[in-house]
Here is the input.
Amino acid sequence: MIKGVSMYQGRKVFAILLAAGSGRRMNMEGKKQFFRIHGRPLFQYSLHCLEESEYVDGIVMVSCEEDLPYMKEILSKDDGKHEKVLGFFPGGKERYHSVYAGLFGLKCFLSGDKDPIVLVHDSARPMLTHEIVEDSIRGAVEHHASVAGVQSKDTVRILDKDGKACDTPARSSVCIIQTPQAFDYSMLSKAYEKLIKEEEEGRLSALVTDDAMVCELYMGVRPFISRGSYRNIKITTAEDLKLLDLWLSESDGS
Ligand code: CTP
Ligand code: MG
Here is the structure.
């Protein structure tokens, strides 16, 4: 059991860092979470931020089974101590399988304390900041569920079945959803257990896009939108890598 050194308002905070995707849309050799950018594999940027956060007590890493030894090797050879990394777990086919694996893995590190907060983050979002992490945790403590988001800069049109524009939601009511997403641990695990049970029984009907949706669907809890950032982008295609390179150059002065 790890020491409760951090905590947020008496609640322990655990993070699940997802890195079990295959990065198909990147259309490049290798998996994007391991791309070296400014000397560091991509997944290490958000890991570093979570490790440095004064509120995060422990981190569970989720990666493809075949990449787990590589990930462990990277972390054993760099200059960090990674004391907050509790364990490494194999992810699954879809993102929600990986989250479930992380929640399941986390279970054995929990003591009987007050219901902890669990924060789920995509390692494909390397520009995570302490402000985003803290806002996300605060949102979960106050509202049980929170999702980082930013207001859409663009006008969004809803299309009809023929691909023609119909509705136009007010821009101020359109939010671009990001991670981290943070929740009461007990609630998120219950939601995911329901989801996985439905899938095992062949009854899964809804399209699951993120953790907040799982919470809404299975627990009826709507998330609070915490403050994300326009730089907290998900590295999805090669042009996102160029942007990241630019932002990192700004911050390291290269
Ligand atoms: N992820 C995961 N397990 C999966 C799928 C995704 O842990 N089965 C993680 C990815 O590693 C990433 C995050 O979820 O950090 C968001 O997913 P996405 O950006 O879609 O990454 P990939 O699924 O790897 O990319 P693509 O969809 O282009 O294949
Ligand atoms: Mg994906």
Notes: The two ends are 41 Å apart (CA to CA). The pocket of cytidine-5'-triphosphate (ligand 1) is lined by residues 18-25, 33, 62, 91-95, 97-98, 122-124, 234, 236 (CB under 6 Å). Strands lie at 13-19, 36-37, 40-41, 58-63, 85-90, 117-122, 145-151, 175-184, 224-227. The CA atoms of residues 151 and 175 lie 5 Å apart.
